[in-house]
Design brief:
Layout (H helix, E strand, L loop, with lengths): L1 H24 L1 H26 L4 H32 L1 H21 L6 H7 L2 H19 L2 H15 L2 H9 L4 H37 L5 H11 L6 H16 L2 H27 L7 H15 L1 H5 L1 H13 L5 H7 L3 H5 L9 H26 L1
Length: about 375
Amino acid sequence: MNQSALTRSLVSMAAFVIFIAGLKAASNIIVPFMLAVFIAVITSPLMIWLRKRGIRPSFSVLVIVLMVFAVLWVFLQVAGPSITQFIMRLDTYLFHLRGITRSWVFWLQDKNVDIELETVNAIFDPVNIMRTTANALSFLQGMLTNTFLILITVVFLLLELAGLPQKLKLAFGPDHPSIHGWELFAESLNRYLAIKSIVSMLTGICAYTLVRLLDVDFPLLWGMLAFMLNYVPNIGSILAAIPPVMVALATHDTPRAIYVLIGYICINVTFGNLLEPRIMGKGLGLSTLVVWLSLIFWGWVFGPVGMLLSVPLTMVVKIAMESRQETMWLAVLLASDPGEAAEYPILEGATGQDWIEAQAEANSRETFEGTSHQTDTD
């Protein structure tokens, strides 16, 4: 029995490695499709709202696609030239940054600090940072040029959205635990993305205003970058601050770069540490360590787009694990709250339906407690 279990484990791990290798090899095809799914999920509440108002699905999809196309067109028209100009000025920025780094090292050496330029470049190399930024922006620009493919995929996804719940019930049965689990997942993901989109938009507007007031090159580009990277958990806001700080340092002086850095810190503390946690609560129930590891893993598999979608992708894995008795323990390890995980019926004899019902009860209780707390506060 132990040998059989070991064999199954080895086969499962081998299949997992082959599956991930296949995803990475086919990333050029999968990434546009993932972006289309991401857009379809964000716009699905609007699709449902339009259908409830009696608007035909085809016309609803047309309205949504036109809105998405307008947003992508504005982004390409605004950010595209800025990305091109930034790459053209990259060598000039790098020349100034190298000179500033040398001046800092010489100043420290005059103060009898034992430090070498090679050591500083090994720890903090602005050249690598700026080149990485340029490569990431070029990748994003190239990805968004596949607008036609992405929009066509969004159209078909939204058209399938209308009949998807009925198809799942017919395929698996109306009482199958996976049906309710995916409904909970869709509701939680829509809420997460809605809140995250609003907070990201406010973050991008504040970042644009900051760098515009401080006269940093390409304020629209850095505002849009702050908006997009705010979807990346934990480190996204930090990464968004690095390019404008470097550009301010290269085009102005050290105090101006410090002002930009302080401004970004204030924006991130206000929205990321105060506003967003208060609105979102526990979010999607992933632990901080899992979010961080998923960021690295999906970023390695799919590149920058994988980092943007690391949380939704990990939630797909988590909800799949919750639907099976054999993998419930992995879902518990992915959860953010050990006390909440302890409430789930994971003892011997529990079924997937028990797990789903307990999770729904926990989510309802959390929502009720949050509402009661808000009422008491008011």
